[in-house]
Amino acid sequence: MFVAGRIDAADKIAFYRELAAQYGALIDGERDAIANAANLSALIYDAVPDLNWAGFYFRRAQGELVLGPFQGKVACVRIAVGKGVCGSAVAEGRSMLVPDVHAFPGHIACDSASRSELVLPLWRDGEIVGVLDLDSPLPGRFDADDQAGLEALAAIYVRGSDGSFGL
């Protein structure tokens, strides 16, 4: 049985390196994309301080993102590509680090307590198959170290999971 160890968050680079090692051990031998997404959202939500939401949206052929496994309050089920922070990350093909969601044009407020957001595209074979989305009730919660560490976790998730992810 996998048991997550407590990680010291003082050194973010070391924190995310250890979180990646824990996640790699957690999904070792498991290739199911939904199971791996569920465990990654739970691991992040439990380990990363000051979050109020962590989870996935998967891209569908109709040009929208559909809610996947997550931790936190209930969420928007469908987001059009190009809309909100998640849809913008897909449309622009890049991670979106938003220090103040209220200043982001077209922000979709699924939880009014969210103040900052980090959205990371999930790349498979040159296409974005979904996003990993993190929200915080603190303005400016995320920085470049968070982005790099979570991009690495997103890459481990995609490499370690089978399936079309909905496309």
From TrEMBL:
Listed GO MF terms: L-methionine-(R)-S-oxide reductase activity
Pfam families cross-referenced by the UniProt entry: GAF_2
GO cellular component: cytosol
InterPro entries per the UniProt record, alphabetical: FRMsr_CS, GAF, GAF-like_dom_sf, Phosphatase_reg/MetRdx
Gene3D superfamilies: 3.30.450.40
GAF domain ranges (all copies): 18-166
Family per similarity comment: Belongs to the free Met sulfoxide reductase family.
Official protein name in the record: GAF domain-containing protein
